[in-house]
Amino acid sequence: MPGEFSYPPAPQQSQPGDPPAYGAMPPRPPRSGKFWLFTIGGCLLGLFALMIVTAWGISRAVTSNSSDEFGDSAQKIAVVDINGVIISADKVNSELRKMADKDNVKAIVLHINSPGGGAAASQEIYNEILRLRREKKLRFVASVESVGASGAYYIASACDKIYANDASVVGSIGVIMEWVNYGDLMRWAKLKNVVLKAGELKDAGNPSRDLTPKEQAYFQSLIDNMHTQFIHDVATGRGVPEDKIKPLATGQVWTGQQAKQLGLIDVEGGFHTAVMDTAKMVGIKGEPGIIRPPKKKISLFSALTDDADDLFPNPSNLLNQAPGFYFMWK
């Protein structure tokens, strides 16, 4: 009818295969697996290249800083830190030798903050200090910060002088040996430890059972012998008779103030006092220059390429459960 409103016809639905309507975008074809493979691979390759360049830059910076540190020919005091539990002598002895070989190093100060550690490791550092004192004619001074006990004191006694703060912990001349006995746990879990041996004391200290009286005497004889060595070496390093050290070799510790009265240290004073006094002793006027061994910095590259033993321990290390002997304050 005239004037009657009519709705426009509904659009027809497109069917598969029909050409796209005018002005409409054609559908995007799906990405292939190769496209994503090359995209992800390219990103990873670029990231790895960036890591290599960064690691190279860090290594260059570390090398540059290390060489600049020793370029000055002025007379200096070298400082070697002994921190934490002493497990191995290699690192400390290597640093001592490097510092002693410097023509401009006139003395070495050991900056100590350690409760001690392995008996043999402490003894190695002690002997290396005595050797360098004798061959290089260098003055060695120990400066105890918070703790210089047991094996750390053993090392300090090899020096010409020992400094400690009034409240520093010093001493602990003694030997300790300990391990965990898990025999009750094995019995609870209904496990049996089977041992075949040749030699009566071959498995002495087996943590799955109690010590026999003979094993107890055996280990005590070893501990007593090491204790005698400790007393002898401290007396030698301090330049006093062994009879003066024996009454103090009870394993106990003293404050720096008490240790001074007992003759276990020479001067009550901190690290700066030790450095300044040492500089005067070797003829350096004013504030002395100090050099330290360069610290090893782990770069991103080395973290990627170094041995992964620290992350994934070797199962053979589980066999390393033998009792140890320690010059350590606990």
Question: How would you describe the overall organization of this protein?
Answer:
The protein is an alpha/beta fold. The protein has a domain at 75-294 and 324-328: 2-enoyl-CoA Hydratase, Chain A, domain 1 (Alpha-Beta Complex). It is 40% helix and 17% strand. The chain has 10 helices and 11 strands. It has helices at residues 33-69, 90-100, 119-136, 151-156, 183-188, 213-238, 242-245, 256-262, 271-281, 300-305; strands at 76-83, 105-114, 116-118, 139-149, 161-164, 169-171, 176-178, 253-255, 267-268, 289-291, 324-328. The strands form 2 sheets. Strands 1, 2, 4, 5, 6, 8, 9 and 10 form an 8-stranded mixed beta sheet that branches. The chain has a 3-stranded antiparallel beta sheet with strand order 3-11-7. Helix 4 (151-156) links the parallel strand 4 (139-149) and strand 5 (161-164). Helix 2 packs parallel to helix 3. The protein is flat, with a radius of gyration of 34 Å. Residues 58-71 and 315-320 have low confidence and may be disordered.
